[in-house]
Amino acid sequence: MATASLRIAYPKQAQVYGIGTGGTGEFVILSENDERKGAIIVNEASRPLYVLFGDALVSSGRYTVLLAPWATYELSFPPYQGRIVGTWGGPGTLQVTEIF
Fold it and tell me: Which residue from 1, 12, 35, 37 has the fewest beta carbons nearer than 10 Å?
């Protein structure tokens, strides 16, 4: 009986982005990336961050993830590799680590 071996390719690269906005509009958190193996988003703002996966408009009534102030969100495996957008409804900052 033959045995199969499983080879796991562990990510070896990461890029950290700091994003700050002064307004209330939508902004891109991460662009589409077929090489994405994971990502971590940290909301550094004093207001909730509305995050949406996809190309639709994000709002307080339409979102994928709601991040409280100083909350962290980690993409599950396998990670979503499409466009990720967000809005605060006011000024704010966040840190994003994208893993390749």
Answer: 1
